[in-house]
Design a protein that fits this description.
Layout: H1 2-17, H2 29-41, H3 45-56, H4 65-80, E1 84-97, E2 101-105, E3 111-112, E4 114-116, E5 128-135, H5 138-143, E6 153-156, H6 167-172, H7 174-177, H8 179-185, E7 190-194, E8 220-223, H9 225-237, E9 241-246, E10 249-262, E11 270-276, H10 286-310, E12 317-323, H11 331-339, E13 345-350, E14 358-364, H12 370-380, E15 386-387, H13 400-404, E16 408-414, H14 419-422, H15 435-453
Parallel strand pairs: 5-6, 6-7, 7-8, 11-12, 11-13, 13-16, 14-15
Antiparallel strand pairs: 1-10, 2-3, 2-9, 4-8, 5-9, 10-12, 14-16
Helix pairs in contact: 2-15, 3-10, 10-15, 12-15
The structure holds zinc ion.
Amino acid sequence: MRQPMISLALLGLLAATTGQAQTASPAGRIETAAKLRDAALADNKAWALLSDLTDTVGPRLAASEAEARGRVWAKTALQKLGFVNIREEAFPMTAWERGTASASIVGSNHALAITALGTSGATPKGGLTAPVSCFDNLAAMRAAPVSEVKGRIVFIDHRMTITQDGSSYGVNGGVRRIGPALAAQKGAAAVMIRSLATDYHRNPHTGSTGFPAGVTPIPAVALALPDAELLARRCAAGPVTVQLISTPVSKPGQSANVSAEIPGTVPGEIVVLGGHLDSWDLGHGVFDDGAGVAITMAAAAAIKSHVDRTGQAPRRTIRIVLWGAEEFGVIGGRAYAAAHAAENIVLAGESDAGADRIYNVGSRVAETGLPLFGEIGALLAPLGVQPDSSNKSGGGADVGPLAALGAGVLDLGQDMTRYFDVHHTPDDTLDKVDRKQLDQNVAAWTAAIWLAATDDRPLRTK
Ligand SMILES: [Zn+2]
C-alpha cells in the first residue's frame, strides 16, 4: 500500500501546479476516506432513507403508479440532500400486473402456495385443469420429448442452494428465466417451478421470466418450497392433476431512471453508484432494492456534506443513479447505458444484494486502476471486507450494460447467506434489516467512492 500512496502524493503536487485548487488534495484523500468511513459507521442515514421510502411509498412494481411515486420520493430526497443535476429519464416497457393466482391438487384438500412470475400469461377464464409432468430439474425438462409436455402443466423441481455470494441464484436461475419459454415451445399449458429460494416458509418467490418474440406467454407460477416438495411426492406416487388459475395482465407502459450529481472539478469523468428503485409487489421492496437505494444515497450524502463542510470537491463527478425496472430484465440499466454511451463513465457500482454486510470488494478495471483497488481494499479491511483480486467482478445487474461499454466496475459483495429467504416475497420488509450491517455498507461505499472520485488513474476497460 505504501508505493501507490507515494505516487499519489506526487500526483497531488502535479495537480496543484496545474491550478486545480478546488480539488481535494490527493495526499489527504486516504485520511479523508478513513474519516468518512468511520463517521458513516456511527450515522444512521441509510435507515432513515430506507424506512421513509418503504413505509411511505411501499412496493414499487416497475411501470406502476407506485414506482412513479418512488421516483418523486427519490427526487425530493436527493434535492433535500443537496445534490444537483437531478434528472428523470423515461423509457418505454410492457407493464405487467399480477392479478390473482391459486392452484389445487385435484382430488385432494391441498391448495398450493403459488405466485405468478413476471411477464407470464393468464389461464383461460375459469382456470385450467391438466395432468402434471414432473421434472427434477431444468435439464430434464429440456431433454423431455414433446409428448411429455404438450397440453400439460409442467412442474420443474429445480433446487438452489445457500451461498454467501448468491452465485447459486445465477447458476440455477435458468429454471425461472427460460424454463417457462422452453416449455411453451413444446406446447405446455402452464409451468410451475419450485421457487428460487432457500426458506421453508409457505411464501412463493416471484421474479421475472421471459418469452422470446414469437412465443406466446403461458401461465407460469412459482411454488413455495413446502408445496413444491408436496407436489414432487405426489408425482412420485402416481399421476397428478392440478387446477390452476392465474390472471396477470400486460399492457404498454413506461418507467424511468433517476440520477443526481456531486460535480467534480475535472469535467467529463464520472463515477456512478446506485441501486434500483423498482421492486416486486409482494413485500415492501426493502432488501430488494430499497436497501441499495438507501445505502448508496447515504454514502453519496456523506460525501456531499464533507464537500460542503470543507470546500474540497472530488476530482471526478459522483453520480447517483436509481434505476427503474431492473426486475423485468434490467430494462432501466440497458436504457441508461444506451442513453449515456457517449459519456466517460470511468467506474460504476450497484448495491443490489440486500442489506447485510459487505464481505468482499472486487473490480473489473484497466490494469492502471488496480492500485486504486489496493487502496480501497486497505481502507475496507477494518470493516471485515476481504479483497477479491480476480478483477472479473460484475458490479450489479444494472451496471452490466455500462461495463459492456467499457466502464470500470466496483463490486462491493454483500453477504447473501439469508438473502434468498425473503427475496421477492411478502417477507421483504424492514424488520429483517440489521441496522449495524446496513451502516457497514454505507461506510464501505463512502470510502470506496471517495477514493475513486479523488483519483485520476484510468479505470475504463475500453
Ligand atoms: Zn434487485
